[in-house]
Design goal:
Strands 12, 13, 14, 15, 16 and 17 form a six-stranded antiparallel β-sheet that branches. This protein has a five-stranded mixed β-sheet with strand order 2-11-10-3-9. A four-stranded antiparallel β-sheet has the order 5-4-7-8. The protein has five domains: 62 residues, Helix hairpin bin (Helix Hairpins), CATH 1.10.287; 242 residues, 2-Layer Sandwich (D-amino Acid Aminotransferase, Chain A, domain 1); 76 residues, Beta Barrel (OB fold (Dihydrolipoamide Acetyltransferase, E2P)), CATH 2.40.50; 157 residues, DNA polymerase, domain 1, CATH 1.10.150; 68 residues, Rossmann fold (3-Layer(aba) Sandwich). The termini are far apart. 36% of the residues lie in helices and 20% in strands. The longest helix is centred in the N-terminal third of the chain and has 25 residues. The protein has 24 helices and 23 strands. Strand 13 and strand 14 form a beta hairpin. The chain is α+β, with helices and mostly antiparallel strands.
Length: 675
Amino acid sequence: MPDGIHADRRRMDQLVGELNRHAHLYYVEDRPEISDAEFDALFRELQALEEDHPEWVRPDSPTARIGPPPAEGFANVAHRVPMLSLDNAMDVDALRAFDERVRRVLHTDEPIAYAAEPKLDGAGVELVYEDGHLAVGSTRGDGHTGEDVTANLRAVWNLPLELTGDPPPQLSVRGEIVLPVEAFERLNTRRLEAGEEAFANPRNAAAGALRQLHNVDRRRLGALHFYAYALGESRPAGADTQMEILEKLRAWGFATSPEAELCDDIEGAVAYHARMQERRNALAVEIDGTVFKVNRLALQEDLGTLSRAPRWAIACKFPPQQETTVVEAIHASVGRTGALTPVAALRPVHVGGVTVSNVSLHNQDEIERKDVRVGDTVVIQRAGDVIPQVVMVVKPRRKKGARKYHLPKRCPVCKTPSVRLEGEAVTRCPNLDCPAQLKNNVRHLAGRGALDVDGLGEKLIDQLVDAGNVKRISDVFRLDRDTLVGLERMAGKSADNLLAAVERAKQTTLARFLIALGIRHVGQGVADLLAEHFGDLDPLMAATQEELEAVPGIGPTIAESLARFFAEERNRSEVDALRSHGVRFEAAAPRVAHEGPLVGKTFVLTGTLEGLTRDEAKLRIQAAGGRVTNSVTKKTDYVVAGAEPGSKLRKAEELEIEIVDQAGLEALLAGSAAT
């Protein structure tokens, strides 16, 4: 076999592995490592090689796929009609070539009319309606079988659960789930402030929301939009064109793209593509190209389909919006949750309609993964045409001696030693009174789950902090009437009501006090465990990390967070200040069960129990001498698994912890089960 042919086969194998890996990152993990343009280029290279050597086409080649396989955990849904992909045209010359092929197959020199729509950059789904009611919603999957995401789709506000007009008894509708640009910006702002990694683009955020099995983010689901663009089965009566199908969909209650229009011929399609490319940054949703479909349905049927794409439609892609610039400096920004975020100051560059001069590098791991250094030449793109990001470093242009960047060991705002807990990507400032995070900490302290200061809302907190009336969280308990009445929209009665609420908040429980401190990983369940175990605050503050880890239900991460928090002198000083201002809590007598079948046993509950709420099960276990915690650790004795258990079940299996069902729990409570 000639060397050139050997090289072709090696390259095909390499491309299959590389493309499958990137497809998994893109579709399954929602964290792509390369741009769409780079993926498309590799895909086209593989297609060309496979056309030259069809005998070497591998069964796992991505060219045989339309999308990713269904994810584990979701029920499979078979599409009655395959959900095909579209062939891509990378420029208008390829679009004109598509028109020539269409007319050649149809044996006509007459112009072909095309239904034109923006190519929405989201997640394709199919909705099946029975007698006008939503029955099943599924992802595209591999084109033949998708994932049943009906429950999550029901949370999408603009998706009709019941159709209007006169739809057929059985109807399948195809469309795109997208996250509008404004909602995407808000989502990423929240994630970055919480120390989480930003989504690369609205498409990944939308797809990730649909595929949530546990801890479902209803807020993100509600912000999604569904746009219908096709039917999965035979055309409805009275619809002879693609544009008429869109009219039918609107009549049944679906949103369709407001930018859809009819192009009389291919030159009209070329002009439409140019207009959409100019307007893409002004649209409410992200688009990455345009889609053209032969308008007359009879002609679509004459043209037919290939194995993975119809002959009567094509997607014309926009060029990627990337530019090259230089990193002039890197500095750490402190967010309102204390997260230290590295930010690259760039030589200003115009990308996607805006000038970009700063870009987030997210965290230390991300800096090291991309190896970004001061002075580097970098490729910048606006992820989702919204959030600027570093795509890659152009390392051949790196200057000698360029040094790696490390986040500072002290908070750049308050100079407190920064902390990165084991297993976390985010470095944080642990100081309660750090000015950069004071407003968020006061909001947390005043929340219902903490000290519940009724009337101390976000706008009032902003005023108090901005005016310098509250410089540390304990200052909430030093407020007086004159200070409050001097604020905007704060009359005497409102001031009196707030002061009364502050006074009531001074009487609390140890668990609520711990929650109010805002210690990382200390929520209601952990606070209850600590209060029960230590009984008072002083022994808890004096405990070592090893002593904290010995508490049933407290793992290494929580123990480290607690130990670091109370080791910080500023935090201990703030605890003293809160006490001196009159905040009191009753010392909890540690509960010691001397009898019962479950004495000394630690349980974790997951899933739904029949006829028994989580709180009721917890009370019954505690009454029998057992202990219920939220996290599965090596110290857990039993995991009780009800219907639809979550990730705690997998953790129990990994740690080889005994798993019991509801009947097993009842047996343990009765003292008759073997342990």
